[in-house]
Design goal:
The chain is an all-alpha fold and 495 residues long. Helix content is 79%, strand content 0%. It has a single domain (2-384), classed as Sodium/glucose cotransporter (Up-down Bundle), CATH 1.20.1730.10.
Length: 495
C-alpha cells in the first residue's frame, strides 16, 4: 500500500506541475484549445494514442470481451492500430489540418458550418457533442473507480470524485498545452507498464506461460482459441466501433487541427500506429486470459471487475503501483481531451458563434474553463449511476457521435460532391439507428442497458451513415462552384 500511494501521489504532483507550467504558455483561446497549432510529431502522436486508450479499454472492454471471445479479442487491438490509427492518419490528418486552418475552423461544429454553409449544422453538432460525450467520460470514471476500489479498498464514488477534481484542475490550468505534455509523459508510462503487465500475467502459475495458457483456455471452450472466436459477428462489430469510430470523434480529430506540419504528420502516423499496436494488443491479449486467471468465475458477478482482480492477483506491489499509474495516465489523457472538446463547443461554437460574437479572448477562455467544470460535474453524476456498464456507456457515446458525424466529416473532407442534404441525412441516420436500436433492445432486457449489445448498434449506425451520405448527395442539389472553390481551393492555398 505505501508503494501504491507513493507512486500515485508522485503522478498527481507531476500532473498538476505540468498544468502550472503550461499556464504560462497560454495567452489566448488559440493557445488554450489548439496549442497555437504548433504541436510536433511525438507530442501529437502520443496525445492521439493516449486519448484513444483509457481505463475503458483496459477495464471495461478488454476484460468483458476477452472473457466472451478469448484470444480472438486481440483482433480489436489490431483493428485499433490499423484502422483507428494508421488509416485515420493517412486519410484524415493532412486534409484536416490544412482545411480547418484555412477555413479558420477550431472545432468540428465550425468545420461543418464552413464546409456545408450551415449555421444549423453547427448548433446541432455542438449540442450533440456536449451531451453525448458525457457518457464516455462517465465510463472512464467508472473504470478508474473499479481499478482503485480493487487496489486501495476505497469507496468507488469517493475515487470518482477525486479523479473528477484532478481532471478539472490541471485542464483548467493549462488547456491543450498541459494535456499534450502530460500525454507524452503518460504515454511512456503506459508503454512500459503494458509490456510488464503482459509478462507477469503470462508467467503467473494460473496461466503457466503462453502455450499452457492457450491449452487451459481451449479446455474451457475450444471457441475461445479459434481465429475469430465463438461470436465472429459481435467481434466484427467491436472492431468497427472501436476502430472506425475514431474517424468521427471530435476529441480524436482535434489532434490533427493542432499538428505543426506535414513532416510531423508523416512521423506521427508511424509513432501513433506502433503505440496503438502495443497498448491495444497488450490490453486485449491480457483480457483473453481472464477465464484462466479467475478459474472461470466472474468476480462479484461484475464483468467490469475482471481486469482489476486479475492484476491485483498477479502483480507485485511495485508493479501494481505502476499499473495503477498506467490506468490513471491513460484515463487522464482521454478525459482531458473529452472535457476540452466538450467545453469548446459551448464557449466557441454557441456563445462566441451566436450569443455574443464580440466576446474577447480572455472572457471566452474563462467561459471555456467554466464549462470544463460543468462537464466534469455532469460526468461525475452519470458515473455514479449503477446500471450502465462501462462498455455500454462508451458504446452509446461513440455510436451516437460517430454514427452522426463520421460520414458528413469524411465525405465533406474528401469529396466535393457531398451536399448539405447528404450531410444532414448522415446526421439523421446515425441518430435514428441508435435510437431505434435501443428502443427495440432495451424492453427485451427490462431496460437494463448492461444487457444490451450497444457496440453492435453503434457499428450499424456508422455503416448506415457511410452508405446514406454519398447516395443522398448524388441525387440532391449540388453546391455552387464558388462555394466549392472557397472550400477546396483554400485547401490547396494552405498546402
Amino acid at each position: 500500500m505505501p508503494v501504491k500511494i507513493t507512486l500515485l501521489v508522485l503522478f498527481i504532483l507531476v500532473t498538476i506541475g505540468v498544468g502550472i507550467y503550461s499556464r504560462r504558455r497560454v495567452h489566448g483561446i488559440n493557445d488554450f484549445f489548439l496549442g497555437s497549432r504548433n504541436m510536433g510529431a511525438w507530442i501529437t502522436a502520443f496525445a492521439y494514442g493516449t486519448s484513444y486508450f483509457s481505463a475503458v479499454v483496459f477495464v471495461g472492454y478488454a476484460g468483458k470481451f476477452g472473457w466472451a471471445n478469448g484470444l480472438s479479442v486481440v483482433w480489436i487491438g489490431i483493428g485499433n492500430a490499423v484502422i483507428g490509427c494508421l488509416l485515420a492518419w493517412i486519410l484524415l490528418a493532412k486534409k484536416t489540418r490544412v482545411m480547418t486552418h484555412k477555413l479558420n475552423a477550431s472545432t468540428m461544429p465550425e468545420f461543418f458550418a464552413a464546409r456545408y454553409d450551415s449555421v444549423s449544422m453547427k448548433i446541432v453538432s455542438a449540442v450533440v457533442i456536449f451531451v453525448f460525450l458525457v457518457p464516455y467520460t462517465a465510463s472512464i470514471y467508472k473504470g478508474l473507480g473499479y481499478m482503485f476500489e480493487s487496489a486501495f479498498g476505497l469507496p468507488m464514488n469517493t475515487i470518482i470524485l477525486i479523479m473528477t477534481a484532478l481532471t478539472g484542475l490541471y485542464l483548467i490550468l493549462g488547456g491543450y498545452v498541459a494535456t499534450a505534455i502530460n500525454d507524452l509523459i503518460q504515454g511512456v508510462i503506459i508503454l512500459v507498464g503494458t509490456v510488464l503487465m503482459v509478462a507477469y500475467i503470462l508467467s503467473h502459475p494460473e496461466v503457466g506461460g503462453l502455450t499452457q495458457g492457450i491449452a487451459k483456455l481451449s479446455s474451457i471452450d475450444s471457441g475461445l482459441t479459434s481465429v475469430f472466436g465463438p461470436a465472429p459477428l459481435r467481434l466484427g462489430a467491436l472492431v468497427l466501433l472501436t476502430s472506425l469510430g475514431t474517424w468521427g470523434l471530435p476529441q480524436m480529430l482535434h489532434k490533427f487541427y493542432a499538428v505543426k506540419d506535414e513532416k510531423a504528420i508523416k512521423r506521427g502516423t508511424i509513432i501513433s500506429t506502433l503505440f496503438a499496436l502495443v497498448i491495444g494488443g497488450s490490453a486485449y491479449f491480457v483480457g483473453a486470459f481472464g477465464r484462466v486467471m479467475l478459474d472461470n468465475q466472474v468476480p462479484a458477478n461484475n464483468m467490469d471487475m475482471i481486469i482489476p482482480v486479475m492484476l491485483e492477483k498477479a502483480l507485485p506491489d511495485v508493479l501494481m503501483g505502476v499499473i495503477i499509474v498506467l490506468m490513471l495516465s491513460a484515463s487522464m489523457s482521454t478525459l482531458s481531451s473529452l472535457v476540452l472538446v466538450s467545453s469548446s463547443v459551448i464557449s466557441i461554437d454557441l456563445i462566441k458563434g451566436f450569443v455574443k460574437p464580440d466576446i474577447d479572448d480572455k472572457k471566452n477562455m474563462m467561459l471555456m474553463r467554466f464549462f470544463c467544470f460543468i462537464f466534469v460535474v455532469l460526468s461525475f453524476f452519470m458515473a455514479i449511476w449503477e446500471n450502465p456498464t462501462i462498455d455500454a456507456l462508451m458504446a452509446l457515446s461513440w455510436g451516437v457521435i460517430s454514427g452522426m458525424f463520421i460520414a458528413p466529416y469524411l465525405f465533406g473532407l474528401l469529396w466535393k460532391g457531398t451536399t448539405r442534404i447528404g450531410a444532414w441525412s448522415g446526421f439523421a441516420t446515425g441518430f435514428l439507428v441508435m435510437l431505434i436500436g435501443l428502443a427495440i433492445e432495451l424492453p427485451k432486457t427490462g431496460f437494463d442497458m448492461s444487457k444490451v449489445f450497444v457496440p453492435g448498434i453503434g457499428a450499424i449506425a456508422m455503416l448506415a451513415s457511410l452508405v446514406v451520405v454519398p447516395v443522398v448527395s448524388l441525387v440532391t442539389k449540388k453546391y455552387s462552384k464558388a462555394h466549392i472553390s472557397k472550400v477546396f481551393d483554400s485547401e490547396r492555398t494552405a498546402a
